[in-house]
Write a structure and sequence with these properties.
It is an enzyme of class 4 (lyase). With 157 residues, this protein is an alpha+beta fold. The protein has one domain: Gyrase A, domain 2, CATH 3.30.1360.80. The protein contains three helices and four strands; from the N terminus they run E-E-H-E-E-H-H. It has a four-stranded antiparallel sheet, covered by helices on one side. Bound molecules: zinc ion. Zinc ion (ZN) binds next to helix 1.
């Protein structure tokens, strides 16, 4: 089976919350795609409950696109400790961390339920499992710890 970089990361050595570049890949026509690890909580210590994680997912989909060029997708890890962010082109982890921080600040302070996209049975695969309350509380918790642009040392932006 193909060896996957994410599973070679020593999850006991990282210091969340952080942004980490996983890979930059160049396609046959020269286009570059970047994949980032947006680690919001410490692996094997914490995990964001599904309702809050799901609402953060729906919100980051719009908020990150407003703050960063070339966003393709931002999807939660199955372990519920963070998200993959995939973008066209190259961005520094500092730039991504700033966009993430600003997005979480918006969730914590500005977003109301009417602002959350995709919360009915037509636009979401599990619309009953959302919690804006949880999304806000976890965003505040993550922001209180600060977001590092390095995974193994705390270098808070
Ligand atoms: Zn959904």
């Amino acid at each position: 089976m193909a060896k996957v970089e994410s599973f070679t990361l020593d999850h006991t050595k990282v210091k969340a919350p952080y942004v980490r570049l996983i890979t930059e890949e160049t396609g046959k026509k020269g286009d570059v795609i970047s994949n980032y690890d947006l680690r919001l909580v410490q692996p094997n210590t914490n995990a964001i409950p599904t309702g809050g994680l799901h609402t953060i997912e729906h919100l980051l989909a719009g908020l990150l696109r407003d703050r960063l060029d070339g966003v393709i997708d931002c999807s939660p890890f199955g372990c519920r400790t963070g998200f993959h962010l995939i973008t066209w082109g190259e961005h520094s982890t500092t730039e991504v961390a700033k966009a993430l921080k600003s997005s979480l600040e918006a969730i914590a302070n500005d977003i109301e339920w009417k602002d959350v996209q995709g919360t009915d049975k037509y636009s979401c695969g599990n619309y009953r499992d959302h919690s804006l309350f949880s999304a806000k509380e976890w965003s505040k918790e993550i922001l209180s710890q600060g977001i590092s642009d390095k995974p193994f040392e705390r270098h808070v932006i």
